[in-house]
Each structure stands twice: as structure tokens, then as C-alpha cells.
Design goal:
Layout (H helix, E strand, L loop, with lengths): L11 H7 L10 H8 L8 H18 L1 H7 L1 E9 L2 E4 L15 E9 L5 E9 L5 E10 L5 E10 L24 E4 L21 E7 L5 E8 L4 E9 L2 E10 L8
Parallel strand pairs: 1-6, 3-7
Antiparallel strand pairs: 1-2, 3-4, 4-5, 5-6, 8-9, 9-10, 10-11
Length: 256
Amino acid sequence: MIRAFNRTLVLAGLAALSACGAPQRGPSNEVINRALVGAPGEAQPSRIVATEIAFSRTGQEQGVRTALQQFATLGGQIHLGEGLVSVASASGFNNDPSEAPAWGTRSVWMSCDGATAVSQGRFRDKDGIVGNYIAVWERQAENDYRYSYFVFGPDNPQPPPREAPQEGDIVVTALDSIRADVADCSRRGETIPPPPPVTIGDGYTEGGKLSRDGTLRWRWLQYSDTRRRFVLDYLSKGSWQTAYDESLNLALETRE
């Protein structure tokens, strides 16, 4: 196996622009395009980060409902507590820009050919509730990315509130970094090992997809208690590794 991309890509500049915190309008397209200059190969995690910045900016300017619909694939789905719902048929999401949460990318995993990517990040709503989101991105014919699957849920319990700085305190703000990994690519004539088998258990339903080049697999699980789980495996250093396995609580009540 060979690497198509540097194992860990630190995107401090983009992270600073997309970092979760107070609602923000986001950078201009010119700034995003400059951040992408020089990214090697077809598998470019920086393009996912740039797309998510634009996604977040659209939510801040036009509302969550508009952002969800504008950046979804045809047939894209949102995973709510009751199960998968198509973006086209989903209703009730707040479309007031002033109510939109702020979110920012923390990790990106990409198939070797760059056709499929999974991102994980953090969000904060207008009431200060924080949590995780996960999105599966598919490259389109126009070479841009749209999500086919989106799930989110609040931390439970919520982290304790930060203490306000006192007079005389020195406050240091650190730039977040974004971890980005690309799956192994096979040499000509080399066979890609199949992903490990999945055991179907009781008490839940599941679904997911293997990337078309066979180097990344993502799965969702839906439990009877409305709990959801997301599992990501990808080919790394010649063998399959579980990169992410997380349960998410009920979605925040961002719907009217």
C-alpha cells in the first residue's frame, strides 16, 4: 500500500476560520480558494473543510433549513432520533439565521480516490449547548462535495460552564488543528483487502456504505431507545482500522 496524502494534515488556518464558538459569517470564497492552493492528489481533505465552512456560513446567513437542503445530495438523509429522514421531506428545521448554531470541523477521513469523505466536528447552539456532528460527503460530477448523511447530538452531560476570566488574568486563545487522514492506496496489481465482516445484532437496525474504491466504510446504527451510533473503518498501513465509533444522544430540539 502507498499513501495518497500526508498522514496527518494540520489545517490551522482553516480551523481558525471554522472553529466552533460565537456565530460567524465565515470567510470569503477568495480566502477559501487560497487555502486550497497546492493540495496534492485527488483526495484533498482541505476541500471538505472548505465546504463545511461554506455550509456553516450559509446557515448563519440564510438559516439551517436552507443550508441543509443546499448542501445535500439528491436523496441525502438526516439521522434524527426516530431514524433516517430524507432532506427533501424533512420539515420544521428553524430557518432563522439568528437561531443557527455555529459548527466547525475537527476530523476528516477520506477514501483513497477522494470520492467519499467523513467529517466529524463540534457545534454550539444559541443557548450554549454543545455537541458532535458527523457528515458523509460524496464528490459530485462538478467535482464539488455534497453530504449524503448527516447526524448530530448534544453532549450528555454537558461540560461545565467555563469560569469568566478575572481582572488581571492572562487569556490565551489557541488555534485548533484539524486531523485529516486519507486511506491507503493500492499499487497496480495489488488487491485491496476486504473490510472485516459486520455482525448483525438484536435491538437495532443499521445501514451504511463501502466507498467505491473499497478503502473506507461507514455505518450507522439505530437503537430502539432512539440512540444512534456511527462507525467508520478505513484502510491504514495495510490493514483495516476503526477510526471513529461514537454513540449520539437525541438530537437537539432545533426543530419547531
